[in-house]
Amino acid sequence: MLSQAVIFLLDTVVTAFIALLLLRFYLQLLRVPQGNPLTPFVVTATNFLVLPLRRVIPGLWGLDLATLVAAWFMQWLLALAVEALSGLPLARGSGLMYLGFGLWAAVELLRMSLYLLMLVQVMLFVVSLVNPFSPFMAVLEALSRPFTRQVRRVIPPIANVDLSPMVILIVCQLVLMLPVAWLEQAAKEMIHAGMGGFGL
To answer: Using N-to-C axis directions, what is the helix angle for 164-175 and 136-154, rounded to 10°?
Structure first.
């Protein structure tokens, strides 16, 4: 019971922090306008880890690699910690097992990114109805625009009804059901093989 409580608390806190790191990465990648109430909070909450990493992991092609690596590494550590607390004998594992956990961490980041995109679509719809002049609208629109723009090229608005949010939600669900699920299974098989048959 105690280990389950620790796993729950660890998973909740660390996953929330990883979500902030991913959000920081996308805020910079998608050039979200400054002056919104969200960016200062995200940056301040993650600076303690991101700023030291930037000294050794420079940006590349406009990508904030330090933040992305931090998110992946935290997800990798979380996966190892949860499995260790669940009783998985990590000391018996080979390098293949740790590589499998690395792939698993990357898949979890992809999954979380898709959930963030889906959440943005829902929030954009709700905020536009409740308070279209909210300062968060600029953030939500900037995070969503690269995806809605691509959808609108294929499916333009019909009678002034924009179908792009619904299409994005459907595509995200399909990606979660097919390639993400397949990659997760591949990672689990790699971990299992690295444990010599004992594992997930």
So the answer is: 80
> Hey, what are 30's tokens?
């998608």
How many domains would you assign to the chain? 1
**Nearest residue to 135 (alpha-carbon basis) of 49, 7, 37, 61:** 37
User: Which tokens belong to 141?
Assistant: 């629109």
- Give me the residues of the chain with pLDDT under 70, please: 1-2, 91, 197-200
Domain that holds residue 117: 2-194
- The stretches of 30-159 forming alpha helices (DSSP H) are 38-54, 65-85, 95-130, 136-154
Closest CA to 143 of 113, 110, 173: 113
Indicate the Cα dihedral angle 27, 49, 83, 92, nearest 10°: 130
Q: Is residue 200 domain-resident?
A: no
Global pTM value: 0.91
Radius of gyration for the alpha carbons in the chain, expressed in angstroms and rounded = 19
